[in-house]
Design brief:
The protein is mainly α and 305 residues long. 78% of the residues lie in helices and 1% in strands.
Length: 305
């Protein structure tokens, strides 16, 4: 079995194990699994933009847009559950298209810094908007009563379905265009493809997914506040990606499950949890430049000789 063919069954296997943990564990274990699934989806959306060669630190902003849209629409307007999910993803999509059309004309660290600034601007906007609860945020964001007992299963399944959807796009013709842009956008442009439009499409897909992840997060946590959606959220997603391995679609899933599990133990350390994530990125870059999946591939390749 090749590395490429291992991604799909690997993702399905992790999802099955996590669903089993909900069934047998319940309670806090079920909540932890949902956090792992949402973190994996967030990291997968971050990796998706890497297909065009850009590190998207604005992903936390779109995660927050989805969460706040859900909190406001579900509590104030009392929209149906699935309509709320759809609107959260759609709002993140629309904002990301506008943001991408303005910012994707720059590359590399400039794009990263703009994303960082946008994330912080959105966080400050939440604190100064009374309709969104200001500094206190929004409380009482619950899934509908008919789904409440099964929400952990629903959120986990939906997260992994979206991860598989991103994988399907990556392996499609459109995904190959994204990768070609990362490798050499001049070549892509020379054969008639509209590079800028393709980059905006890639960014918009990832942002809509991040917005939907934020919506699931709001229903899972029941409470959201501006501090939940700062730049550290993107840093956490980057840690999941680097530890798991960015070359493999399975990498962000493995990294998220591992680090969220470790973080649940490290909560007793207080602020040291942030040090843990920073150390994870540094150690991964130094000793596992391709992450855990790259390390696994190396072992398998070496064993096959």
């Amino acid at each position: 079995m090749t590395e490429k063919n291992f991604d799909l069954p690997g993702i399905v296997a992790v999802a099955a194990v996590l669903l089993g943990c909900i069934f047998w564990g319940g309670g806090y274990t079920g909540n932890l699994v949902v956090w792992m699934a949402i973190a994996a989806l967030m990291a997968a959306s971050l990796r998706f933009v890497l297909l065009i060669g850009e590190l998207n630190f604005a992903s936390a902003a779109f995660f927050g847009i989805g969460a706040y849209c859900t909190g406001y629409v579900a509590n104030t307007l009392q929209w149906p559950f699935f309509a709320t999910l759809a609107l959260s993803a759609a709002l993140a999509l629309v904002v990301s298209i506008a943001f991408g059309c303005i910012t994707l004309k720059v590359k590399g660290p400039y794009f990263l810094l703009i994303g960082f600034a946008f994330t912080e601007a959105m966080r400050i906007l939440y604190t100064r908007t009374d309709a969104l609860g200001g500094n206190s945020g929004l409380v009482g964001i619950f899934p509908p009563a008919w789904l409440d007992a099964h929400y952990q299963y629903f959120a986990t399944v939906l997260c992994f379905a979206l991860i598989l959807g991103l994988l399907a796009i990556e392996r499609s013709h459109l995904g190959r265009i994204f990768v070609a842009i990362r490798d050499n956008d001049y070549v892509v442009r020379s054969v008639g493809n509209r590079v800028f439009v393709a980059k905006v499409v890639c960014f918009a897909i990832a942002s809509a997914v991040a917005g939907l992840a934020g919506s699931l997060h709001a229903f899972a946590n029941n409470v959201i506040s501006p501090l939940d959606f700062g730049f550290m959220l993107s840093t956490f997603a980057l840690a999941y990606l680097k530890v798991g391995g960015e070359d493999s679609p399975l990498g962000p899933v493995v990294g998220a499950v591992l680090l969220v599990g470790v973080a649940s133990w490290a909560q007793s350390l207080g602020g040291s949890e942030h040090i843990l994530y920073g150390a994870a990125i540094v150690l991964s870059v130094l000793f596992m430049p391709k992450g855990l999946m790259g390390l696994l591939h190396g072992f398998r390749h070496g064993g096959g000789r």
